[in-house]
């Protein structure tokens, strides 16, 4: 891959993460545990999809040839998607959704912080500067829910512990450097994910402790998302998300 | 004494003085309002479902965020309205209980299915259009908290109808298939939208009292006529045909005449036999029941934390 | 219902620096932190505010509406509290 292709692939990875978790959260709209939290999670979803749009627009400009903020999310298949396995995991229940969001928020927060501090790409820095404000709030929100539910009732604690353990398998991938990430870090526009691992582990440990939850042993890390080898879930997410563009190609909506 | 209070109350209403939560009010005024506001709130919440059905399938990202924001607004509107109703002495949980057990009603339009993307356009254009007709006069309703909630709702609603109409416009300017999709949506949503204004005036038993108390300011038929009159021109711009062969301009009345409404269908849907009544209610009950442990845990944590903070203060 | 309902909170928003916080509505939340965040999500989605106060509704005390005449009418004849009560020569433009 040349520099341009690496930048494109790297932006897609960032965009796909926010797009897919945004899409997952949007599934909650109208079904939340209480009206106020339905609204809260939808806000987060809107932030993330908004961020994805900015990134897709940038990626589309780099790619050229008529690519748009829509052709990228709506016309790529599973193997071309670059998101983390974590974000495509099903909502399951409020506990899973909160834990998934929290694991992602910690990662998302530090990643954007690093991009602002270290990226030599002006546009990526600009997008990250806007994202960091949103990510700060998301992290506050999901951290509070981690604590509230971990230290709530026996039922909530057990549901949270289960979710933490099951989703833990997908957290190792956050820090496994893909070829694109390595090249992006070398070129100076990207961040090596290993550089945020210690921050992530520290923050997660701090919140889990306050939530009276147990940190799982460092188990086997499921991986593949960053290079297009996903769980079966992503195919269904895309089937739903891309339905209109696939059933009625090349039209304005 | 009682009669005197009622007279004073009516005098305040006639003088356009707003009634506030702690003011004296006839029991029937309170009950009527409570029924109307909670029903309105339930409609917002159940109304999230048919449109929510298309959020994950919206055809592009611009449409997706607009739809998501719109459905979220509806949750907000439900919340404002529940809050207004709570000032009349019923808790939100009690109101939800009435919704979940089928005791409380909500607008029957939401018991129809959303089958194609064009339904997002038709709902925004027609259903929100009809809702706005109803809601704008409610900004001046006699009960203060309800009027204030409606001011907020109307301010936010203004983008909803435009969003829907823009979807329709894009479809109508698109391919033959898209235009057919738009026409089909209009065909399915037109009559249910007309019915949203409720029974004809001579068949609407509570209307007269509500008008006297200035809860309502226009009758069902007046609002319905107003809606038909403005919508015909909008359909013309789209190049769509309203599915009513009796629809025509009446020069003498200065209004459009329109065909007879199928009240049997309306009553049937209100009675619970619409295509989606069971599905909609089940979705609400499921969300509520599956959320019970979350609400409970948050309460338990809040209590624990309050106790810890108290202990800390006492220890210091 | 075994579940206790989350308490009701009144929300006050400062629209911009320099203005008072103004009552905008209410919401339910388990604790004050959640109430502030919910208020942010519910009442400032369209840039309506820069600062939020929340007060649990049960802590708000109000006068009895029946006392309205006794409390507020006595102020109506104290016209000397208003600047227009004082007649000054016209050539004195502003005071």
Description of the molecule:
The complex is a heterotrimer of chains A (253), B (316) and C (95). Chain A has 253 residues and is mainly α. Chain A has one domain: Ferritin. Chain A is 67% helix and 0% strand. Chain A contains eleven helices and no strands. In chain A, α1 crosses α8, α2 packs antiparallel against α6 and α5 runs antiparallel to α6. Chain B is mainly alpha-helical and 316 residues long. The longest helix of chain B has 29 residues. By secondary structure, chain C is an alpha+beta fold. Chain C has a domain of 60 residues: Roll (Ubiquitin-like (UB roll)), CATH 3.10.20.520. Helix content of chain C is 18%, strand content 22%. Chain C has two helices and three strands. Chain C has a three-stranded antiparallel β-sheet with strand order 2-1-3, covered by helices on one side. In chain C, a hairpin with a 6-residue loop joins β1 and β2. Chain C is elongated, with a radius of gyration of 21 Å. The mean pLDDT of chain C is 91. The chains are: A mainly alpha (253), B mainly alpha (316), C alpha+beta (95). At the A-C interface, α2 and α6 of A face α1 of C.
């Amino acid at each position: 891959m040349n520099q341009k292709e690496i930048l494109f692939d790297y932006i897609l990875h960032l965009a796909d993460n926010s797009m897919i978790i945004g899409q997952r959260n949007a599934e909650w709209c109208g079904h939340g545990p209480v009206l106020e939290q339905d609204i809260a999670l939808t806000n987060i979803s809107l932030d993330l999809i908004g961020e994805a749009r900015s990134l897709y627009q940038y990626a589309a400009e780099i790619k050229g040839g008529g690519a748009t903020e829509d052709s990228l999310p709506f016309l790529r298949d599973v193997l071309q998607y670059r998101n983390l396995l974590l974000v495509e995991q099903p909502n399951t229940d409020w506990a899973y959704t909160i834990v998934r969001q929290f694991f992602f928020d910690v990662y998302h927060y530090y990643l954007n912080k690093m991009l602002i501090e270290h990226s030599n790409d002006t546009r990526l820095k600009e997008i990250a500067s806007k994202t960091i404000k949103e990510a700060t709030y998301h992290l506050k929100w999901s951290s509070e829910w981690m604590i509230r539910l971990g230290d709530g009732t026996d039922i909530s604690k057990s549901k949270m512990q289960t979710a933490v353990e099951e989703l833990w398998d997908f957290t190792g991938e956050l820090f496994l450097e893909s070829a694109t990430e390595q090249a992006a870090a070398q070129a100076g526009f990207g961040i090596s994910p290993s550089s945020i691992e210690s921050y992530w582990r520290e923050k997660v440990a701090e919140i889990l402790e306050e939530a009276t939850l147990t940190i799982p042993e460092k188990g086997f890390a499921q991986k593949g998302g960053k290079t297009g080898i996903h769980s079966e879930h992503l195919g269904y997410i895309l089937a739903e998300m891309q339905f209109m563009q696939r059933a009625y190609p090349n039209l304005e909506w | 004494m009682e009669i005197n209070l009622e007279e004073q109350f009516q005098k305040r209403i006639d003088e356009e003085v707003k009634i506030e939560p702690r003011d004296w009010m006839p029991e029937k005024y309170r009950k009527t309002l409570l029924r109307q506001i909670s029903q309105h709130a339930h409609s917002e919440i159940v109304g999230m479902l048919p449109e929510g059905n298309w959020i994950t399938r919206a055809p592009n990202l611009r449409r997706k965020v607009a739809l998501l924001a719109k459905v979220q607004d509806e949750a907000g509107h439900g919340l404002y309205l529940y809050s207004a109703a709570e000032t009349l002495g019923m808790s939100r949980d009690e109101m939800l209980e009435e919704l979940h057990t089928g005791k409380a009603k909500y607008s029957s339009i939401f018991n129809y299915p959303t089958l194609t993307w064009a339904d997002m356009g038709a709902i925004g254009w027609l259903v929100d259009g009809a809702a706005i007709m109803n809601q704008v006069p409610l900004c001046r309703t006699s009960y203060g908290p309800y009027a204030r909630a409606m001011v907020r709702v109307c301010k936010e609603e203004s983008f909803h109808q435009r969003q829907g109409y823009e979807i329709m416009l894009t479809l109508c300017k698109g391919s033959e298939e898209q235009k057919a999709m738009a026409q089909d949506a209009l065909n399915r949503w037109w009559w249910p939208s007309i019915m949203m204004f409720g029974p004809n005036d001579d068949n609407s038993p509570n209307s007269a009292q509500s008008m006297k108390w200035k809860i309502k300011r226009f009758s069902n038929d007046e609002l319905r006529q107003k809606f038909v009159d403005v919508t015909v021109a909008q359909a013309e711009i789209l190049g769509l045909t309203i599915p009513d062969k009796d629809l025509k301009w009446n020069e003498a009345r200065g209004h459009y005449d329109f065909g007879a409404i199928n009240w049997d269908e309306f009553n049937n849907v209100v009675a619970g036999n619409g295509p989606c009544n069971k599905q909609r209610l089940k979705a609400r009950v499921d969300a509520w029941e599956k959320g019970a442990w979350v609400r409970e845990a948050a309460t338990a944590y809040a209590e624990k934390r309050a106790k810890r903070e108290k202990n800390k203060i006492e220890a210091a | 219902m075994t579940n206790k309902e989350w308490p009701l909170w009144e929300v006050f928003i400062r629209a911009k620096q320099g203005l008072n916080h103004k009552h905008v509505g209410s919401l339910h939340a388990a604790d004050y932190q959640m109430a502030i965040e919910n208020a942010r999500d519910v009442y400032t989605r369209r840039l309506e505010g820069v600062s939020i106060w929340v007060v649990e509704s049960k802590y708000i005390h109000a006068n009895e509406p029946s006392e309205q005449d006794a409390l507020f009418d006595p102020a109506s004849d104290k016209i000397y509290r208003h600047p227009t009560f004082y007649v000054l020569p016209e050539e004195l433009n502003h005071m």
